[in-house]
Amino acid sequence: MGWRVGLERKPRQAWQFYCVIAASILVGLGLSLSKVDPIQALFWTAVINGVTAGPIMILLMLMATNRKVMGEFCVGRTQRILGWTATAVMLLCIVSMITVWAMSRR
Question: Considering the entire predicted model, what is its pTM?
Fold first, then answer.
């Protein structure tokens, strides 16, 4: 974002950086003072990361295989096959997780 960053700078020089640090500390403090179970929070964070990984991998593969985007750095055939295979496996894992979860709720 073009911000000045670093703890060696004074707050007036890098005020956006210090605002992000202060906001992070306040969110962490709020979570520690709340009744949120930290293990549950870690679990749900991992679930969200896993579910969002599939669509992100699709976008990354679409960009990596597009010559207009990557130019001479476009991925080769082997990388394309491995990338789409990994993406398919990730999507299969997401669908499997949701299916098992839905079946266990019945």
Answer: 0.69
